[in-house]
Amino acid sequence: MPRDPRHDILFEPVRIGPKTLKNRFYQVPQCTGAGALKPGANAAHRAVKAEGGWAALCTESCSIHPEINQSMSICTTLWDEGDVIAHRHMTDECHKWGALAGVELGAGGVKDNLQSRYVAAAFDRFPSGGIPKVYTYAAREEDIRRVMQMYADAARRAIDAGFDILYIHGAAGVFPAHALSRHFNRRKDGYGGSFENRARFWIEAIETIREVADGQCAIATRIAIDDLSGPWGMEMHDEGLRFVELVTKQGLLDLWDVIIGGSGEDKWGEDSGPSRFYKSNHQAPWNSEVKRIANVPVVGVGRFTDPDEMVRVIKSGQIDLIGAARPSIADPFLPRKIDEGRTEDICECIGCNICISRFNLGSTIVCTQNPTVMEEYRRGWHPERFDKPERSEAALVVGAGPSGLECARVLGMRGYRVSLVEAETTLGGHLRDVIRLPGLAEWGRVITYREGQLARMANVEILRGAGMVTAADVLDFGAARIVLATGARWVGDGLGAMGPDPVPGAAAEHAYCVTPEQFFAGKPIGQRVVILDSDGYFMASSIAERLADQGKQVTIVTQLEKVAPMTDLTLEGFNMKRMMREKGIHERIGHWVELLRPAGNQVEVVAYDLHRDGSLRTTQPTTGVYPRRLGNAVEILECDTVVLCTARESRTELYDALYERRAEWGEKGIEAIVRAGDCLAPRYLADAIFDGHRIAREFESADPERPKAVIRERQVWGQEVYPKLGDPVL
Ligand code: SF4
């Protein structure tokens, strides 16, 4: 299909210094969690996006020297010749598709350096606020000169590696930003004091790499124009815009990359805003201020997935380039689909930030919407290409929740004749309920994208409202390979916090107990509510928010040390806690429940502090108990209703019945019956969708329930290494 002419502006080339972007789609620096140790994964990830039409692909923060490493965040490096070779795979792939490759040269900040064991110089002497506690030393002028040399050396290596855009990483938390901040920079020398002095380090860093590039590369900087810390931080209408003015006046840059917030999950979540709290383009007020001053192109992010919105922000003069990290992860082919007039095929980011949570956990990123992300190299998966089976056989998928929908979609793309059977009249499984929770409507894109794709496949039939499928139905269906994606349900007995034990007195049958499914189904809930949360993600706090909005008194009890710690990893946690304070939702952290006890018209939650045991040793240690005084203090929480968000269990009834009759599988022509997603074990949405996808990709294997082997990237003994032992320190 031809491109919609209204979107033509998105495909105009844009000049940045000596280089030209072929269109306005720009993948800003984005972490993958692959870092320097998995260059194949990084290269293949960016390569797929280059093929998908992005005009520029940038690395994540790239450490310029081992002294400035950050071991707990897995980032990439440009320390030596080995890194040059590794990065060249990425840049070659970008160039093959006419895209530019950018590198974000990162230096400084309060780094833990747990791996390299260097003590980092920082712009001033100050410790980290978090754990591990890290102290830096204040850089002397000669240390600053050494850092400039590191920038120069890294820039030289970047050019050798084939990069087209060299960044000075200046977002909050790194050397340049600390230098500019009057809060972090209290130096008295030529790098401290006046605004001009504080700007000097950043300016010199830009000048340094500009000189090295010598017209071969575009020079960019990423600036957190406002770190949202008020007067003690960097404010847009103070240092932020003054710095933009100063650099603009000196003509030092070819591109501004603008973000807000800073390092740390609290500020990062204000930029990579989760959809629960932020709609797309919430950064507009900041981006447009930079654009007003800058005389070179400005790139800004905004979780843009709608081409009409992209056109609006370009035409309004807010930004010049559509910056994206998450939308490019969710759909690496987003630009090409717009270009080809296939906007209905765009797989839109849902703003769940599971990608970021995995990075925060030290793993490679995953994506709820795009199961192929970071599987491009190790599994050889391509988001838009699928192997065809030798014969177009029948396949049966039972259950049209997220995993079943994805499995059916991929089987359909592969050419199978797919029957997707769903008990309910609507598709989406438990996600249908989840998207009714406050702020989670965008997650519905998981369903609408797959429903739309399936509707266009002539080889997929969807049998809605089929009721409960029986073992006999499956055995007689006539498919050789069958996927059961029957999902999971919340337990009704309080199990989940303390191993395999339920909570005495908890039962979904009781009028005073409500599971999440019963909540969605409308089971009556009293005025005073205690929510037992051992799940640690969004369900308990979301139900609490809904109930608080209805005027109910809500307390969350959790055995965890904070409410919903998973939401900290997805950058939702800080605003979620603010919401809880604002709406008067109480919490008992580090507590669990001995018993639920009906008492007249109410119920008593008998709660205890997990650390109630005394600290004194008993005189004689005995086996089977802690050698401490045992405490027995409890707290009685009186309420009308207890909501049980403790754990989920797989719906295995159908699989169990089929397994009982496995002797009949062969005579019925059945080769395999496999469980996908939550049906095998409850898991995060992204992992359930991944499982459905993987099973469909590996459908012909002897046991599709077991993943095939993947390519591992690791040092192999006896091969060339960089640097070699004894090489000079860089
Ligand atoms: Fe978007 Fe969620 Fe995918 Fe991240 S994991 S790219 S937020 S859909």
Describe this entry's structure for a reader.
- The protein has 730 residues and is of the alpha/beta class.
- The protein contains 22 helices and 28 strands.
- Strands 3-4-6-9-10-11-12-13 form an 8-stranded parallel β-barrel, surrounded by 5 helices. Strands 16-15-14-17-28 form a 5-stranded parallel beta sheet, sandwiched between helices.
- Helix 3 packs parallel to helix 5 and helix 13 (402-414) packs parallel to helix 15 (445-455).
- The longest helix has 20 residues, at 141-160.
- The chain is globular.
- The mean pLDDT is 93.
- Bound molecules: iron/sulfur cluster (SF4).
- Iron/sulfur cluster (SF4) is lined by residues 326, 329-330, 349-355, 367-369.
- Iron/sulfur cluster is lined by residues 326, 329-330, 349-355, 367-369.
Strand order, sheet with most strands: 3-4-6-9-10-11-12-13
List the ligand species. Answer: iron/sulfur cluster
Question: How does the overall form come out from the CA principal axes?
Answer: globular
Q: DSSP helix count?
A: 22
User: What share of the residues does DSSP label as strand, in percent?
Assistant: 15-25%
Percentage of helical residues? 25-40%
Mean pLDDT across the residues is 93
Extract low-pLDDT stretches. Answer: none
Instruction: Let me know the number of strands.
Output: 28
Distance between the termini: 53 Å
Query: Which value, in Å, is the CA radius of gyration?
Result: 28 Å
Largest sheet: 8 strands, parallel, barrel
